Amino acid sequence: MLTLTSPVETRAHRVPAGLKLAGLAVATTGLVQMHGAAVGGVLAGVVVLYLALGPAFARHGLAMLRPLWPFLLVLALWHGWTGDWARGAEIAGKMLAAVALANLVTMTTRLDDLIAVVERLARPLARLGLDPRVMAVAIALALRFTPVLFWRTGQLMEAWRARSARRPGWRVVLPAVLLALDDADHVAEALRARGGL
User: pTM for the full model?
Assistant: First the structure.
């Protein structure tokens, strides 16, 4: 499986995972409350934060945001059609800033550290019958499979383009879903073979 952690080592890698996740929670909660120019200010701050960690890291971070463009395009088209460009720009800015901050956390934090934090936070749920370890591993698998899903979909699109002059569009959705289910089945078999969780 692919990893979300950045190959470029930065100072942010040394910040404890719990502190980064708490900062992300506070920042995104505050971001939801913001309006107008404040959202632009947060976006500018996120750009400065990425650049402060080095140009190579910033380039890698920008590449990680590439899958977000279809959502931003849909937002722009919808709000352009309704005539409320300012609201569309605000929502797009919030989405971009929140995803960029989340990417910053996942790019600078080892998966084992994220799992440990989630497991600690989920311990009170054990009283309700939820196993914190299962919850942590489920979140870790979701994080690990996200880049794999994008990579597999990219491969399907390349294969389509090699065989057809038409754009692939929605035609790769079903094969991508089937590949994701197949991967999930293999991981489930591997977990069962190792005695489960």
Answer: 0.70
Q: Say whether both 104 and 137 belong to one domain.
A: no
- For residue 144, the tally of other CB atoms under 10 A from its CB is 15
Range of the domain at 178: 127-197
- Cα 8 to Cα 197: distance, rounded to the nearest angstrom: 32
- Tell me how many domains the chain contains: 2
CA distance 59 to 50: 9
List, for residues 21-74, the tens digit of each pLDDT value.
Answer: 899 999 999 988 888 888 889 989 999 999 998 888 888 888 888 878 888 888
Q: Does the residue 144 lie in any domain?
A: yes
| pLDDT tens profile 84-129 | 788 888 888 888 999 999 888 888 988 888 888 888 888 888 888 8
Alpha-carbon distance of 67 to 133, in angstroms, equals: 30
The reply to whether 82 and 142 lie within a common domain is no
Considering the domain architecture, whether residues 86 and 2 belong to the same structural domain is answered as: yes
**Identity of the residue numbered 141:** L
Rounded to whole angstroms, the Cα distance separating 60 from 7 reads 9
